[in-house]
Amino acid sequence: MKTKLKDIAEVIRSKNAGPYELTFDIIFKDWDTYQTACDKKIINEEIIAKLYHIPVEDVINIIEFKPAKAIKATIVRPMASGELGETDVYGAQQHAPLVDLEVEL
Amino acid sequence: MRELRVLSPTAILGYGFPMESFEEGMKRKPHVIAVDAGSTDPGPYYLGAGISFTDESAVKRDLTIMIKAARENNIPVIVGTAGGSGGEPHLQGVVDIVKSIGQENNLEFKMAIIHAEIEKEYVINKLLDGKVKPLHPVPELTLEELEKTERIVGQMGLEPIVKALDEGAEVIIAGRAYDPTVFAALAVKEGFDEGLALHMGKILECASIAATPGSGSDCMFGYLSDEDFRLEPLNPIRKCTTLSVAAHTLYEKTNPYVLPGPGGILDLQETKFYQETDNIVKVTGSKFKPSKVYTVKLEGTKKVGYRTVSIAGTRDSIMISQIDAIIQEVRDRVQDNFKDADYKYHLDFKVYGRDGVMGSLEPNKEITSHEIGIVIEAVADTQKIANTICSFARSTMLHYGYDGRISTAGNLAFPYSPSDFKAGEVYEFSIYHIVEVDDPYELFKIEYVNVK
């Protein structure tokens, strides 16, 4: 079944993890979907790299955090927080491509 | 079973809190009131410029309530990362506020001031000894970057704060500190488990952000025992749920199972969250694992120039369809016009409505809106050059005769006069590294003042 991430997630957010990393949290609505999402690895390094047009090496990790029904991805910031050319000092608005991501469950 | 109770009034000192929530917290007889006052999140400027990102009046309001309540109950108040960045000017600003609170309210107490600003010379020696390491993905530190660095702070661990408590401090104003330390220090001094204390601190540092609905300006209460800790929001409209608390453990972290801090890691692989009541969550299993070598994280920023910005918009479909070419032509005109002046500058055009928010990460570069916002930005070695470049780019773009132009009166809508804003000094992060220290107190001198 094809679905959009925003339809199965309760929270999709991005934030700095320090000035040199961006981290994305996807918290799912229910346990069954979360389990399927983990089993099918719908969020993986290749998907994140493709979505943000970055090399796979810049995806630092993908972590399943069961206590929060969450999958987390962290990437190298394209530039450090506040560097010249920066567009989002807090990194709080970089989640957008995930919201409309189509996934196969 | 013994219990240690901690009141966290607000996520950042100066963000405020409702008095009702604070009073609910005091009814629960806390052993300590603690608050985190800073972060690197607002970017590199505040550390470099020595300025706080919170407002002095708002900080004084929060601290007055905290210190008065703490003195009435004879419990300590602990503030971490004073002044937002925890350097000397930041620390001094908060110390002055605390002194005035003491005088204006006829309060007497012993205040500890824990310094966290680090001498450049110290870091140079450590770097030459090979004891400064980058945290991935930060580049290696070079002497050149160090030389340019304006201000360096170290992120203190629990030890200096525990020492200040041991030495009888009633109000502790700490410079840059690992966020959970101010909440965990009294517990660790009393012999409670460091892992549970630090994990509780990690959640309390954001106060009610870990509740649902979340808020950064409302109080949270922590109860620590020898086996677990519990979290309770103090406003009846909020609840702690296993999900809201677990989700907060993820927040702003690369890996929620392994949280590195001064002197070791917080290991949450066996952490479990239980819904104890409708609004209280119990947490067990969090462990602190000391590392072989004690390391402290350093943060430093360097000045890279002065900024001038101009904010404008365009509503012309012909102009919008050619925006990239127009920007390039304006860049070329600026460069050509000042080619003899040998100015070094950074000129940037942020196009809102296309990729103003995401920059290089934006997957959809097509403009589909009827209007776009353009922020013209110049950064140069002096404010005067930045003004010159921004002004010239702005006027060139305003009157630029691009291909197919039929609106010959002007290309930009400015919401303000003056149209250009001098934004002052610009800083960038230059140090975000760890340094090996001989002992946890090495970098953090404690000074005592009797306030009366």
UniProtKB/TrEMBL annotation, chain A:
Domain DUF4387: 5-102
Domain of life: Bacteria
A Pfam family this chain is assigned to: DUF4387
InterPro entries in the cross-refs: DUF4387
Name of the molecule in the record: Acyl-CoA synthetase
Annotated source species: Vallitalea longa
From TrEMBL, chain B:
This protein's name: 3-methylaspartate ammonia-lyase
InterPro entries registered for this protein in UniProt: AtuA_N
Positions of the Acyclic terpene utilisation N-terminal domain: 59-209, 240-395
Pfam families the record matches: AtuA (PF07287)
Organism: Vallitalea longa
Organism phylogeny: Bacteria, Bacillati, Bacillota, Clostridia, Lachnospirales
